[in-house]
Amino acid sequence: MNFCSACGNPVSQKIPEGDNMVRFVCATCTVIHYHNPKIVAGCIPEWNDRILLCRRAIEPKSGLWTFPAGFMEIGESTEQAAIRETAEEAQAEVALTSLHSVLSLPHIGQVYLVFIGKMRTERFGAGTESLDVRLFHPSEIPWDQIAFTVVREALRRYVDDLAKGEMTLHVASIPGSLAKPRLEDDRS
Amino acid sequence: MNFCSACGNPVSQKIPEGDNMVRFVCATCTVIHYHNPKIVAGCIPEWNDRILLCRRAIEPKSGLWTFPAGFMEIGESTEQAAIRETAEEAQAEVALTSLHSVLSLPHIGQVYLVFIGKMRTERFGAGTESLDVRLFHPSEIPWDQIAFTVVREALRRYVDDLAKGEMTLHVASIPGSLAKPRLEDDRS
Ligand SMILES: [Zn+2]
Ligand SMILES: [Zn+2]
Questions:
Q1: Which of B6, B47, B85, B139 has the most neighbouring CB atoms within 10 Å?
Q2: Is B94 on the interface with A (CB under 8 A)?
Q3: What ipTM, to 2 d.p.?
C-alpha cells in the first residue's frame, strides 16, 4: 500500500495511538488502513469412497493438485463459498456434511476453512481454473503433486480420520513462521 | 474506496474480465482491489460453572455485553487471536478447549470464530475497551443487554449445549441478508 484509498495521498507506516501494531496511516485524512487475514473456503467432495481433486490451471502452482478452494467473498457464508468454489473449479454440486479443518497460515495471513461435502451426482468437470478434475481413492492421492502445504495437511488429516472411521474437527496452524498454541494433541 | 492504494489514481467499479463480481479497479495501473470478509476471533472464557463477559467501553454498542472478541491480525492464528482478545479485553488468560461456532455474517462481510477456553486462574479485569468484566452463571446472562446478534446467537448455542451436556461445533449464518444453506438442522 502506497496511497490512501480514501483520499489518494501517500500513506506512511506507524503505530497508531492506543494500538500496538504498525499500520498504514494517512497523515492527510487520518484514516488508518487495517489489513486482515483472508478466508479461503474449500471442500473435499466425496463420491462413494473417492474424493474429487482439481489440477490447477493457474499460478501459483499450476499443474499441481488441490481440492476446490478459493477466497471467500463478501455477501456469502463460509458454506456458500465452499459450495461455490466446488461448482466453479470442479463443476460439481455438493451438499456439505461437516467442517473438517480450520487451518491458519499466520505468515501469509490466510485461514483455510475446509468442509467435507457429498457430491449430489457423479457429474463433474474442469472449470476455467482447472486443467483436469478426477476422482481419487484415498490410496491414490498424488501426495508429491499437491499444490500447497495447507492442502496436503488438510488431506492428511482427512485420510487419517477415514482410517480411524471418524471425522473430527481439526484446528491448527501450518508452520511457516511463529511459534503458536495448538488445539491438536497430535501436533504438540 | 476512492483511490488506488498502489498508484494513487482514482478507481472505478467494474466487473473484471473473467470475474463475475463488481470490484474496485484502477484504470491507470490495472490493479484489481479485492475486499474480503474479516475474521472476528472470540472466546467464551469459563471459570468453573460461570463464563466471563465484558461490558463494552467503545462504540458500537458501548455499555452492552459481549464475550471477548475482535478482528484477527495477520501474523497470528485463529487460536492466538482468541487468546489475545481475551487478554486484552478481559485481562484473563485462557487455554482454549474447542472451537464452538463458525458464524458468517454475509451482509457485513464478517465471520466469527468462537472458541471455548478455560481460564487458567480466576484473575480478570477490565481492559481499555471494557467498562466492566464479570463472571456470569449461564442463568444470569443479560440476554437483553448483549451487544450484537451474533454474540447472542453464539451464547444461545453455548447455553443449549451446556443443557444437553455436550459441546458441539455450530456452523451457521446470522440472518441479515441472503438466503443461505445451513449445516445446522435446528435452524432450517
Ligand atoms: Zn487519506
Ligand atoms: Zn493504480
A1: B85
A2: no
A3: 0.90
Beta carbons of A96 and B181 less than 8 Å apart: yes
User: pTM of the prediction?
Assistant: 0.91
The answer to whether residue A73 neighbours chain B at the CB level (below 8 Å) is yes
**CA A149-A105-B5 angle, 5° bins:** 120
Specify the amino acid at residue A78. Answer: T
Give the pLDDT confidence score for residue A18 in this predicted structure: 86
Q: How many CA atoms lie within 13 A of A121 on its CB side?
A: 7
A10 contact residues in B (CB cutoff 8 A): 8
> Which ligand is in closest contact with the Cα of B3?
2
- For residue range B4-48, what is the model confidence (pLDDT) as tens digits? 999 999 999 999 998 889 999 999 999 999 999 999 999 999 999
Give φ, ψ of B166 to 5 degrees: -150, 130
Q: What is the pLDDT of residues A47-58, one digit of tens each?
A: 999 999 999 999
- Answer with the residue of higher pLDDT: A186 or B8: B8
- Is it true that the peptide bond before B10 is cis, omega within 30 degrees of 0? no
For residues B31 and A182, what is the distance between their CA atoms, to the nearest angstrom?
Answer: 37
Out of A10, A33, A173, the one facing B77 most closely (by C-beta) is: A173
The C-alpha cell that represents B161 in the structure block:
449445549
Asked if B20 contacts A84 with a C-beta cutoff of 8 angstroms, the reply is no
A5 CA distance to ligand 1 centroid (A)?
7
Peptide bond before residue B181 is cis, with ω within 30 degrees of 0: no
Chain B hits for A104, Cβ within 8 Å: 76-79
Q: Which residues touch A179 (CB under 8 Å, ≥6 apart)?
A: none
Residue contact B35–A74, C-beta within 8 A:
yes
A87 CB within 8 Å of a chain B CB: no
Percent of all residues in chain B with a pLDDT value above 90, rounded to a whole number: 90
Please enumerate, as own/partner, the contacts of A63-67 that have beta carbons within 8 Å and a separation of 24 or more: A63/A131, A63/A145, A64/A145, A64/A146, A64/A147, A65/A142, A65/A145, A65/A146, A65/A147, A65/A151, A66/A42, A66/A146, A66/A147, A66/A148, A66/A151, A67/A42, A67/A43, A67/A114, A67/A151, A67/A154, A67/A155
Report the Cα–Cα distance between both ends of chain A, in Å, rounded: 37
Question: With an 8 Å Cβ cutoff, is A31 touching chain B?
Answer: no
Place of cell 441472503: B178
Measure Cα distances from B186 to A46, A169, B180, B182 in Å. 24, 20, 14, 9
